[in-house]
Amino acid sequence: MNAHRGALRGMIGRGIALVVLFWWVATGLIIAMQRAGWTRVSALVVATMLAVYGFWELRSSANDDTAVGARRSFMGGALLWGWVSVTFYGGYLTGFHVDALGIAAPSWALVLPAIQATLLSDVAALLLMGAVALLLHGDRNKSGLWGLVIFWAVQQVAKLNVFLGVENPAGNFLPPHLAYLRQFFGPLENSWFLGVSIVALSLATFATAWLCRRAPSEGKRQSGILYATILGLAVFEIIVLGMTLESTPWDSFLRARGH
Amino acid sequence: MNAAKSKWSQPLSFEVQCWIAWSGLFAFGLSGILVYRDVGAYPPLELGAVVLAICWAIDLVRTGRAARKKN
Hints:
The complex is a heterodimer. Chain A is mainly α. Chain A has helices spanning 2-32, 37-60, 67-89, 108-117, 119-135, 143-164, 192-212, 218-241, 251-257. Chain A has one domain. In chain A, helix 3 (67-89) packs parallel to helix 8 (218-241), helix 5 (119-135) runs antiparallel to helix 6 and helix 6 packs parallel to helix 8.
């Protein structure tokens, strides 16, 4: 019993550490690498190589239902998500640059232009999800696929919140070549959707954490911990969108970017 | 946990290492698209990388196929 608890504690610790470290370091590096043209290209080259390595990790851990297998698969999915983020922030895969003709968000007239503005990045993410689903079809370990789906889904929630209006949309995180996205930022006050998002994501976090305790295998328990951690971080991010802060965990990366 | 449990330290095969390196070269080549979009001409270094990546991909596919046939 004690050995079982010890193993579970190890899984929780390693799972949370892996997700938090990836979330903080990857986000920070993606911001810092927008410093100059050559750093943007370097980020693209490294992220692409890591994405191919991610595919290899997903494939080679596809039938490994252990805790390590779940973490490997999740890391593979996270590296693919990193590639989507690098190609978006680097300006390689964004969307169609539409001028919204001075209409203030949120407005129904802006919904289509807002979707178009990040369409290529979203299509790339969906295609990657499809490719990973095909790659892991019929396999036991799909942590990487669900990790990728959750990363994308919580980003959509954040985007919708910014569109409807939040106190702190963090527009300073956007590099100059994505400044046009600011026209889709809603008013600087929190909308009703912010509270709904926080409640829904908190419920999803607790439900995932609760359900993973009864999962049938070690790998499934580890996957549940990883998903719950992403959802928990998403709750934190949405709360941060709703309040003005003096500093963020990525200030040093923003200073490294230099603009 | 069984004896055949997964490890982070599983060595990458030479073929996988080559494809990872290839993807970096190809991504560098494709990054020229941004310059092309702004300036209207493909930068020569990036164009060279695309040509090299295509040649290397053909070679990687052929040697990979030959190695699998041999095994």
